[in-house]
Amino acid sequence: MTDPRKEFIAQLRRYQMGSISRRHFLGVTGLGTAMAVLAGAVPGLRPRPTFAAGEIGDKVSLTSWPNYHDQANLDAFAEMTGATVELTVFGSNEEMYAKLKAGGTGWDVFVPTNYTIQNYVDADLIDPLDLAQIPNYDPASLTDPRMTEPGSIGGKVYAVHKDWGTTGFVQNTKELPDKITSWKEFWDITKDKASGRVMVHDYQLTTIGNALKYFGYSFNSNDEKELADAEKLLIEAKPHLFAINSDYQPSMRNGDAWMSVAWTGDGKQLHKDIPEIVYVLGKEGGEIWSDFYAVPKAAPNKKGAYALINYLLDPEVNTKELLFHGYPVADKRVIAKLPPDVANDPIMYPAAELLTPLEFGASDVLTNPLRAEIMARFKSA
Amino acid sequence: MTDSAVIQERSRRRWAYVLLAPSAFWYLALLVLPLIVVLVYSVGERAETGGYQAAFTFDNYLNLGARWTAFQNTLTLAPAGTLICLLAGYPLAYYLAVKASPKTRLFLLILVVVPFWTSFLIRTYAWMFILGGRGLPQLLDYIGIEGVRLINTPLAVLVGIVYGYLPLMVFPIFVSLEKLDKRLLEASEDLGAAPFATFRQVTLPLSAPGVITGCMLVFILLMGEYLIPQMLGGGKVFFIGNALVDLFLQSLNWPFGSACAMALVVIMVVTVTLYLKATRGTGGRDVSLM
């Protein structure tokens, strides 16, 4: 069923990403379509509909991150259940938390990051999940407790694992041929050769965190003196930045930006389409994280929420999602289905010595007023 | 006789109250009460995990300097945008109202209105491409002008502002020029005034109400602008509107955000009052904003 309006939006989106190249078309859409055709042709591979059409309402809202879901999967869900998925993307956990805290969001499913889940529980914004409604959630098949356990608090499962990744940076090696391996170099080059061509996230955890790494401090530091150093660096770098935005793919693709703080999957997606864009983990460390699916206490369509989470955790669907977004999933059933080149991909599965210095975000960082104010000052500077 | 007149008068008044009630309620519930809430919040404190906590302190106001750049950007780019809109909008309105033949006038008016049929967001997105590396700069590159950067600069924001708000300037001026009695222009000419003198002494004063209305509309809306700096400024050219969004949605510092909002309201009230005072009498007619 090709809706011309949807097709147009898809084309527009692709144009917006600055990538109507054939390579990209085949790489992203072609792959998705091929997978969908394959899955459709083999009935056993098709996710089993658990709901009659209309049973879960006509829409489920999903609040997530940029470039994080394969639209083909969401469309298939709509076709299967009659409920369209309304996707909203955010640029930071702070913003997500603030919106949900303010209330009246209408979200059914959202995607919080490991370190924030405690905050949501403390603020009484999420309930333990009714796992009986998510038959595709299988604790036995989860492979890495570090990635999956932050969803459980006090022995109760509040959120289920979506995928995990790292926060490094992407670099266009055609424009910037230097070998850059550290956050120190990242910031120094920003103020020098790459002036006007660098992006950082509109997200205090990673932007301040990676400025802290310049000095070798902890990514999670709440120390006043250390944060003051980081702020000084950020304010110095500000005139040399191209933009402060967590959706950096469009600018990296069209060549406006040469370097950006980036997450694994965006690094993977960019590298796949434009091989000269590489993904680098700063050797001082930085962030390792894991994302989850959770249901707000105030979700208007809880039944739809569970149906969507269950659908997205279906190993078939989850694999397709992974092949689209490029973030590793800590689930045996998914890993078993990955083609070897993906399963051994150096961007998705970095070398152990690069992973060791990485830190998980800490829950007090989310609501630290000083970090929030530093970020706000940096942005309005 | 007099009694019935009084009764009639009373019932007329009662009707007036009934008819005014919805707008009075609207005004009270959606303007006055929220403003009071903002005022109360602005002397409060940020709660431990963000939000509002009751207190009585002026710290938030004393801290306004921390957003100086945002105020500065707003207070330079909003008037600059208004001025450019005026300089670009006046000739257009003049042509539409005075020079164009009725047929072309209709066509041209439609051209001014048509962009409104598309969402402002989408039109601003279009400017992201036009001003981005693969848009105008690439075109300039072909003809030998290299290294031009447009997107995420104050200039890009200014371009977006003028593009977005120009019609709001054109229409009030157009209306006031259209009402202008053309015989006055002939009279001026007959009395020996040069075209420019006629324009300065007749046309301009008579179109002043339109100019004042247009400037107010554009300026007031620009002071609260959020979208254009966000999209064409790349988070680098910050308006006070952007700082507000940040304070409420990222820092969760509602009291400081409220203080910034109050400061903006005060600045607006002061500038608008001064502006109206200064321009009163220019047109010989009352300024009609609404």
From TrEMBL, chain A:
The keyword Disulfide bond does not apply. GO terms for biological process: polyamine transport. GO terms for molecular function: polyamine binding. It is found in: Periplasm. GO terms for cellular component: periplasmic space. Keywords: Periplasm, Signal, Transport. It comes from the Bacteria. This is Spermidine/putrescine transport system substrate-binding protein. It comes from Dongia mobilis.
Automatic annotation (TrEMBL), chain B:
Its main location: membrane. Keywords: Cell membrane, Membrane, Transmembrane, Transmembrane helix, Transport. GO terms for cellular component: plasma membrane. InterPro entries: MetI-like, MetI-like_sf. It comes from the Bacteria. GO terms for biological process: transmembrane transport. The chain crosses the membrane at residues 15-41, 77-97, 106-130, 150-175, 206-228, 254-276. Residues 71-277 form the ABC transmembrane type-1 domain. It is found in: Cell membrane. It is a multi-pass membrane protein. Pfam families: BPD_transp_1. Belongs to the binding-protein-dependent transport system permease family. CysTW subfamily. This is Spermidine/putrescine transport system permease protein. It comes from Dongia mobilis.
